[in-house]
């Protein structure tokens, strides 16, 4: 029915015309009115799009779920395989009641993702095409590499890693900012079959140490320092502290290869320990510029990436090679309607999954030209992004709602003083994009002509799961629209029953897709318990979702104890564990609250030890504790002094009540009679503004 409706609507000469600016508040706006607001791609856009109509999407999606083996093996055949996969394209068990969870794609197929990203493109004649434009923090500091040059640099690093004894299956930790050396390092590991684990360079020494202890790398790759905006951050000092900590915990790392980032600091100003430390520029250029590929099985691990869950310990999400390769390449191509002439810029850091799948692997598998930006998007002013767009003629721009919201607070002239005429497709990721941010992005940044791909996915899913295909469907501001090929989303109720049609509930996925993660490193039990046991038979995403009358999906945020701050996923338990390490903190409970720019902010209730008085200084030192334990991005926005916490008689903290107090919805506290001590609530309310 909806299809017929769309057909009749698309007869209207609306094109991608100006859309209404609702007078909505930035967050918490009602979505009800958005359901009926259809924004059509222009005829010109659809006419050139890879998927140009709802019908074409529906046919392709139908085939992808009815015949996944045929659908995905046709695509996989376009890549290089040293040896083709076995008879079974995929095999899976996603039902804990039937045995251990197992997902395998292209098993027996022998390939290498670095080869497919680089050598294959060079052999196809793209050697002189720019693979990466690098834009430094400061205006005027830039560089670039062609596909041939990138291949040579990757080979030099790969040869070095082999030389110091890194072998197939060994872990390598990468703690680098957005220098070209970061994707180079990832590709070099992949080339020799080593398993990279990139740690976002905003994580503290303690967090880095925790990850090192878990995956036990032979080597860590870093740089001496980085400038982000006006600030210089001495990464090498953080690595040194992390390595000291990890060796106390029994894991020592032999080599710390350090890139000299001379725009941030000098060698002389870098603390150095001979023996372990090696300057990148002193050794890597001496190595040969070609390096044999280590051919690996499609199911051999490619990388580990730690992410937050609902307990304090981060989870090592493990992705394997073949399925991830096919999935990231295909999602990139279709969700951004990629064409070989595009210049693509994703503002994400390679320390997160977005930088893995959509800075490095997805684009390079397509032979794309990628912009890598070292700096802060509002430095030296709010026009920096559009300056970069014009400078490199960026045609696909992919970013996070938090950046859109922070830029839309400034005058539109920071946008409109740049031409932006190269832009063709916009993208959003990391959290639900609220309709007013969507409209500003669409109308102001994209001049009402660029479709927005609001891509819903997760570290665990490897690639896009629910996303518009620009040119196919009309969009609704704030909806991630429809599932990608091969993806079967289902919405279930608390009992795990699938709900059909228009509904709200928990978002799960039926069946596997090639990019799915295969396990949590060293903890398959936790993998099954977290993702496959809550609703037997399905993968549970941890997100809430509704589906409207037209079948569009609307993500509504996490339903577990995970909060999403500026698109960064943070477990409330991680922040609580950091707070209770403070010598004067007896107990802590953390909840998320709406935040105008960050999406969610961190709100911490803290109970102090008996006899300790509240003070501003103490508040600061509690925040510092979290910065040191996790990283600056996890610093609480509010500390709320709590003489006690609302607990049930069995001692369970009632977070529902804390969330209401944090958001000052005091009239909606609900039933508090089951609390062991209901007077705690009044005490908390009394301290709300202290
Ligand atoms: O809550 C969803 C939100 O981000 C979570 C995944 O976080 P992470 O693994 O760090 O990956 C972020 C980049 C893929 C999801 O569970 N999320 C991500 N993208 C969207 C989103 N929520 C709504 N809309 C999105 N487009």
From TrEMBL:
<feature type="domain" description="AMP-dependent synthetase/ligase">
    <location>
        <begin position="126"/>
        <end position="512"/>
    </location>
</feature>
<comment type="similarity">
    <text>Belongs to the ATP-dependent AMP-binding enzyme family.</text>
</comment>
<keyword id="KW-0436">Ligase</keyword>
<dbReference type="InterPro" id="IPR020845">
    <property type="entry name" value="AMP-binding_CS"/>
</dbReference>
<feature type="domain" description="AMP-binding enzyme C-terminal">
    <location>
        <begin position="574"/>
        <end position="652"/>
    </location>
</feature>
<keyword id="KW-0547">Nucleotide-binding</keyword>
<dbReference type="InterPro" id="IPR045851">
    <property type="entry name" value="AMP-bd_C_sf"/>
</dbReference>
<dbReference type="Pfam" id="PF00501">
    <property type="entry name" value="AMP-binding"/>
</dbReference>
<protein>
    <recommendedName>
        <fullName>Acetyl-coenzyme A synthetase</fullName>
        <ecNumber>6.2.1.1</ecNumber>
    </recommendedName>
</protein>
<dbReference type="InterPro" id="IPR000873">
    <property type="entry name" value="AMP-dep_synth/lig_dom"/>
</dbReference>
<keyword id="KW-0067">ATP-binding</keyword>
<dbReference type="InterPro" id="IPR011904">
    <property type="entry name" value="Ac_CoA_lig"/>
</dbReference>
<dbReference type="InterPro" id="IPR025110">
    <property type="entry name" value="AMP-bd_C"/>
</dbReference>
<dbReference type="InterPro" id="IPR042099">
    <property type="entry name" value="ANL_N_sf"/>
</dbReference>
<dbReference type="Pfam" id="PF13193">
    <property type="entry name" value="AMP-binding_C"/>
</dbReference>
<dbReference type="InterPro" id="IPR032387">
    <property type="entry name" value="ACAS_N"/>
</dbReference>
<dbReference type="Pfam" id="PF16177">
    <property type="entry name" value="ACAS_N"/>
</dbReference>
<feature type="domain" description="Acetyl-coenzyme A synthetase N-terminal">
    <location>
        <begin position="57"/>
        <end position="117"/>
    </location>
</feature>
């Amino acid at each position: 029915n909806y299809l017929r409706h769309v057909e009749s609507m698309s007869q209207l000469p609306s094109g991608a015309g100006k859309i209404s600016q609702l007078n909505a508040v930035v967050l918490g706006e009602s979505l009800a009115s958005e359901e009926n607001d259809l924004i059509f791609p222009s005829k010109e856009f659809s006419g050139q799009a890879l998927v140009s109509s709802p019908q074409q999407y529906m046919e392709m999606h139908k085939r992808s779920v009815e015949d996944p083996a045929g659908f995905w093996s046709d695509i996989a055949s376009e890549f290089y395989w040293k040896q083709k996969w076995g008879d079974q394209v995929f095999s899976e068990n996603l039902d804990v009641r039937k045995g251990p969870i197992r997902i395998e794609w292209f098993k027996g197929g022998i390939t290498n993702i670095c080869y497919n990203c680089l050598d294959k493109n060079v052999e196809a004649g793209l050697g002189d095409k720019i693979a990466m434009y690098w834009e430094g923090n400061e205006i005027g500091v830039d560089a670039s590499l062609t596909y041939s040059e990138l291949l040579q640099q990757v080979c030099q690093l790969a040869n070095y890693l082999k030389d110091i004894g890194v072998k197939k299956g060994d872990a390598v930790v990468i703690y680098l900012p957005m220098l070209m050396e970061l994707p180079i390092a990832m590709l070099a590991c992949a080339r020799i079959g080593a398993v990279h684990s990139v740690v976002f360079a905003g994580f503290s020494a303690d967090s880095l140490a925790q990850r090192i202890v878990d995956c036990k790398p032979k080597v860590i790759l870093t740089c001496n320092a980085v400038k982000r905006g006006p600030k210089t951050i001495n990464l090498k000092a953080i690595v040194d502290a992390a390595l000291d900590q990890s060796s106390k915990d029994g894991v020592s790392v032999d080599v710390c290869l350090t890139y000299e980032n001379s725009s941030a600091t000098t060698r002389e100003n870098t603390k150095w320990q001979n023996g372990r430390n090696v300057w990148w520029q002193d050794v890597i250029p001496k190595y040969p510029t070609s390096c044999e590929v280590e051919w690996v099985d499609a199911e051999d691990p490619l990388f580990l990436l730690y992410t937050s869950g609902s307990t304090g310990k981060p989870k090592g999400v493990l992705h394997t090679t073949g399925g991830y390769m096919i999935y990231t390449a295909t999602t990139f191509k279709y969700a951004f309607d990629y064409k070989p002439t595009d210049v693509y810029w994703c503002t994400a850091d390679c320390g997160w999954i977005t930088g893995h799948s959509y800075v490095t692997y997805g684009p390079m598998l397509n032979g794309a030209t990628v912009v890598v930006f070292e700096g802060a998007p509002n430095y030296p002013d709010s026009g920096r992004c559009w300056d970069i767009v014009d400078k490199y003629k960026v045609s696909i721009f992919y970013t996070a709602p938090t950046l859109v919201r922070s830029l839309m607070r400034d005058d539109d002239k920071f946008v409109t003083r740049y031409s932006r005429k190269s832009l063709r497709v916009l993208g959003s990721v990391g959290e639900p994009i609220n309709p007013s941010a969507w409209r500003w992005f669409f109308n102001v940044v994209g001049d009402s002509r660029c479709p927005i791909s609001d891509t819903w996915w997760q570290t665990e899913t490897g690639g896009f799961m629910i996303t518009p295909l620009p040119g196919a469907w009309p969009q609704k501001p704030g909806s991630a629209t429809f599932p990608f090929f091969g993806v079967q989303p289902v919405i279930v109720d608390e009992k795990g029953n699938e709900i059909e049609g228009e509904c709200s509930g928990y978002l799960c996925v039926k069946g596997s897709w090639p990019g799915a993660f295969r396990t949590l490193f060293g903890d398959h039990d936790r993998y099954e318990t977290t993702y496959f046991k809550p609703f037997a038979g399905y993968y549970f995403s941890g997100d809430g979702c509704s589906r409207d009358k037209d079948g569009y999906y609307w993500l509504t945020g996490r339903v577990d104890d995970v909060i999403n701050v500026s698109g960064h996923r943070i477990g409330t338990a991680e922040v609580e564990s950091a707070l209770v390490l403070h010598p004067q903190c007896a107990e802590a409970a953390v909840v998320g609250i709406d935040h105008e720019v960050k999406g969610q902010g961190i709100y911490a209730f803290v109970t102090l030890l008996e006899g300790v008085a509240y003070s501003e200084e103490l508040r600061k030192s509690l925040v510092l504790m979290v910065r040191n334990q996790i990283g600056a991005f996890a610093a609480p926005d509010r500390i709320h002094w709590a003489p006690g916490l609302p607990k049930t008689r069995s001692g369970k903290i009632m977070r529902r009540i804390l969330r209401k107090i944090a958001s000052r919805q005091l009239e909606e506290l609900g039933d508090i009679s089951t609390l062991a001590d209901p007077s705690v609530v009044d005490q908390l309310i009394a301290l709300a503004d202290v």
